[in-house]
Fold:
Amino acid sequence: MSRAPLALVLLVFVAAVASADAPKPEKVIQYRQSIYHVMLWNWAPMLDMAKGKRPFDAAEFKQHAERLATMTRMLDDAYPEGSDKGAQTDALPIIWENKKDFDAKLADLQRETQNLATTAAGGDEAKIKEQLAKTGGTCKACHDKYRAD
Amino acid sequence: MSRAPLALVLLVFVAAVASADAPKPEKVIQYRQSIYHVMLWNWAPMLDMAKGKRPFDAAEFKQHAERLATMTRMLDDAYPEGSDKGAQTDALPIIWENKKDFDAKLADLQRETQNLATTAAGGDEAKIKEQLAKTGGTCKACHDKYRAD
Structure:
């Protein structure tokens, strides 16, 4: 077998694998929205505790903060090219026109949620509330610019 | 203030907090389904690698296995009483009639997904495939009995 056909075979194989690699846009959107649902599930009780709507529980808060931080890291794979359509989504197309800025904002979120988890482990309620507000700011920064109302 | 009124005040307070604590069934179902979506997102590429549909990548496999294990732990809070209805759900009502058995099956899933993450970290492809099959068995055990077709 000459080199050319082998290269061709490999190319076809790689293409087939690449095609198996790329989930359909609607599946990406479902994945993305699922991450946000789990994030919100963990965010809500932390906010309730900060607002005094439920008693502050350091252990519970810490678990929610850790899970929130974990989920935000999964967002790295949740905005591939082409996932601006295919199902109902609040993600605005300008995300992909400003991908560097968007990724920087995502990195802010990931950093501050991790800081929240670390602060929560410390158990200092005042510091935790302060960090919760700071974390909320990184959510808002992205929502204001890149999410449909 | 006598002890009785204080106890009463506390009781009312606790009741109010408890009410703030309980998310609506449709929100629980959305949370539950979101966890499974993220689980499946991570499961699919591991299965593809095991079947040779995409090249085996130890680092990628490990990350998927860790995320899968993390998500299964969140299922602990995803089946509260009353969440058998309120939105479309494949979770059969017999879950809550057999909660001990269901919880045992969930514990099996959590243990085997954690074992998968540990095995994946070891990097031995044959052992990983074996553990993937074992893990899949714990998914199936629950689906067969507790999930609508």
